[in-house]
Specification:
225 residues, alpha/beta, Rossmann fold, 6-stranded parallel beta sheet, 10 helices, 46% helix
């Protein structure tokens, strides 16, 4: 029988990455002679990948750029972020203990994110978390972005899991839509980067701290048997 698998989003779910991502966005904007974005506004732009974050920031600043300019800004963003990926980013409180407990119940773990795989691995390696995950998959892994459910299906397969024995954990409308489309139960965290309060998106379970994850996952796993 395939192992029970929990698939996590990365930014705003596993790791508080906003400080480094917002710092990077504002570094790019300074290079473009644009005003820096307030942290609270920029934080909620995270989750759709670096290009979308830049596009949303430019829209907020009222600046239009062509695709070549956007590509250049994206390249600057990726380069700088890769050098500062874990300056201030940290796992959310209680995560390590929750993973230990779930592993004790026989669960495996994977990451399914709209952050590029290379940057995801760089971050998780810096935080000494890579060994926790059977698969770490980004949009460039399969050339697919969430909310397309195929990226979740392929991540589960890469982790050696099965759809009917998997649960997703995420922080956003995109994560919930991805899980729903794939037919996978979803636990939402309310401390991430969703522009819409996640409780309004009716996830299967909602948690406010990782000390609530284990009972939520065990309940969903039991219900799906």
């Amino acid at each position: 029988m395939p192992p029970l698998t929990v698939i996590f989003d990365l930014d705003g779910t596993l790791v508080e990455t906003a400080p480094d991502l917002v710092d990077t966005l504002n570094w790019v904007f300074r290079r473009e002679s644009l005003p820096e974005l307030p942290y609270a506004e920029a934080r909620n732009m995270i989750g759709g990948g670096a290009r979308r974050m830049i596009e949303n920031g430019l829209r907020l600043e009222g600046r239009a750029v062509d695709s070549a300019e956007l590509d250049r800004m994206l390249a600057d963003f990726i380069r700088y972020y890769g050098e500062h990926v874990a300056d201030r980013s940290r796992p959310f409180p209680g995560l390590d203990a929750a993973l230990d407990q779930l592993a004790g119940h026989g669960f495996r773990f994977a990451v399914c994110t709209n952050k590029r795989e290379g940057l995801s691995r760089l971050l998780l390696e810096a935080l000494k978390m890579t060994h926790r995950f059977e698969a770490i998959c980004g949009p460039d892994t399969f050339n697919i972005y969430k909310p397309d459910p195929e990226i979740l299906r392929r991540t589960i397969h890469a982790a050696g899991g099965a759809m009917e024995r998997s649960i997703m954990v995420g922080d956003s409308e995109t994560d919930i839509a991805t899980a729903r489309a794939a037919g996978v139960p979803i636990v939402a965290v309310d401390f991430g980067y969703s522009e819409i309060p996640v409780e309004k998106l009716t996830p299967d379970r909602l948690i406010s701290h990782y000390d609530q994850l284990v009972p939520a996952v065990l309940e969903l796993a039991s219900a799906s048997r």
